[in-house]
What does this fold into?
Amino acid sequence: MNVLQSYLLFAALFVLVCLYALRHPDSTQAGPIRAALPGGTSSRAPATSPNELAAS
Amino acid sequence: MTVLAATLASLLAFGVQDHVSYLWMLSYVSAHGESYAANHSVNGLLQRLLFNGENLGWREDTYPPFNAWVSAGTAAASAAFVLACLFWRTGGRARATAADFMLAILHLRPGVTVAWEHHYGILLPCYAVLLPTLARRPVFGRLTLPGLAASYMVASNYWVSRAGSPRRG
It folds into this structure.
């Protein structure tokens, strides 16, 4: 029971694991969190030329 | 500049002795920690695992006795959290993401000596961001959203009955 008193710690640890999984660069499922947010961008290098911007 | 101005104003208002005493207090609390149930840090977990000090009743004038195992475990956990946040799989990106920001904030909670319940209020915006994100990218498959829901249910409720007096902020 003493361990269960730290329930907030365990909830926060789960959130931390999720954040680490989302930040994992090699994960095909996860990817950067910004890409999943509304209006977010991916982690690829930003387009620099007008053609590249138009294609994106 | 703001910190310098605030420090000078505080020194003028309260004097040097109070500031030296506050540093002593910080050192004392860092060494002894807190076993009270409202402390949801690694330090609190270790204190209660070893039955060091009282964990159900609140005593504002008493801290648990110094325990070398708790102190070492807290220091190790703090170092692990900070190092993981800074160096573990940054992906080589120059720009920080929202995930990096939330990780940095969240790592300060379990890694410090004392983290009261209200210090975990930062979890609410984290859940607000994670819900749509994990719905699109379920990092743990079908268990992702149920796991997030369980975590939110745990974090958003009081689960421990206590007989102590009101906590300090």
